[in-house]
Amino acid sequence: MQQTRNLSFSFLYGHSIITYRVGLIFFLMVGLCSCSSLPPSGLSGVNLKIGTNVTPIREIKPKQDNQAIVYIQGQVEKQAPLIKQWAYQISDSTGKIWVVTNQKNLGEGSEVVIKGKVRYRSIPLAGKELGEVYLEEE
User: What DSSP letter does each residue of 23-48 carry, written as one string?
Assistant: First the structure.
């Protein structure tokens, strides 16, 4: 048993253990620093991006079939109670959109990610179309 122990540490004879520790720390630091060159995973401090499938609000267009499902991310600006639901105006750096949902605990100023169907409500008034695109949360 003693002979086996001596063989396993024989590489240390003539070298300081500090040299190995410094070398190990060096390789760990290089390894950690090299990870920073990877593309961002989607989470980035103030401009929180949850994933690549988040749609900027300005790109949301009404669809004929009303079956388009999108994810949006933004800040709650306004809220309006409905009969059994709530409507929230969500804004990001590209625009604003209303979202109809059953959630009633979204406070103004909170950051949210919502999945919903794109809807369009036509409002013809005096020969003009004043309809608006909104999301209905899934």
Answer: HHHHHHHHHHHHGGGSPP-S--TTS-
